[in-house]
Predict the structure.
Amino acid sequence: MSVLDVTDLVKHFPIHGGLLQRQTGAVRAVDGVSFSIAKGETLGLVGESGCGKSTIGKTVLKLIEPTSGKIVLGGEDITALKPAAMWPHRKRIQTIFQDPYSSMNPRLPAGTIVGEPLENFDIARGKERDERVAKLFERVGLRPDAMRKYAHEFSGGQRQRLGIAKALSVSPDVIVADEPVSALDVSVQAQVLNLLIDLQEELGLAYLFISHDLAVMRHISHRIAVMYLGRIVELTDKRTLFSTPLHPYTEALLAAATAPDPRRARRKKAIVQGDVPSPANPPSGCHFHTRCPYATAECKVVSPPLREVSPGHHVACLLR
């Protein structure tokens, strides 16, 4: 059963101009995205910077309001909920930030920071809160006596563990992780990713994992959704994505990845020309046709839907 279902999600940011600051256009950050995540599953969102990955994360968290579409969390439609009505649901969906230090109050001890959600949701206070926080510290690989330290006294990897402990404190069903290891050294990245995998297996957590790094995606994801200019262009399990990519953009991403892959080395390298178009003025038809080496005249006028071409393998391409 899915714990998070997103259907036809759209988020457009208005562009205003002129003397009267009237709307003159819109940035199509997310342009009709659908996916679901099951309990204990990790769905990875991958793509170039500016493709809409982080906007999806913020919209699903209801940090920004969707333009249209539907967000169902644990069977309940939260799309139109106002902040006050959304509050009880926030326990069920938490986030891990790219830079945990920026989200931590430097004047508070780490134990107080991790314990804040427990008090905010009236889960535990006083001694009971401190006991829960000590167990959370141990669960993420930190010593309980570190509760008295301040955020600046921790390394980058330890701060990320604090962020994970804070997200876990309210026992969520879904965690949105937006580039959670991109600022860490490679060796520390592996430790944090393995911790997230262990916690998922132990607690049955569902992750929406956002990253531009295919090597990270390969390590942690069960399924991967490839995004381009606000749309998902390919969605399948990670084994199939790396062995049999069907969309030209996915082929290009794999060809450009630095991680060595003997299977990819035997494939012809996909050559992509030009820069990513502006989401304020996306190309007609298939958004990728301006850079696609296989584009036809039809690709310039027909927008391909994301369709299932084999069991569990979805692709938005007229040539497949």
Observations:
- The two ends are 29 Å apart (CA to CA).
- The chain has a mean pLDDT of 91.
- Residues 92 and 172 are 4 Å apart (CA to CA).
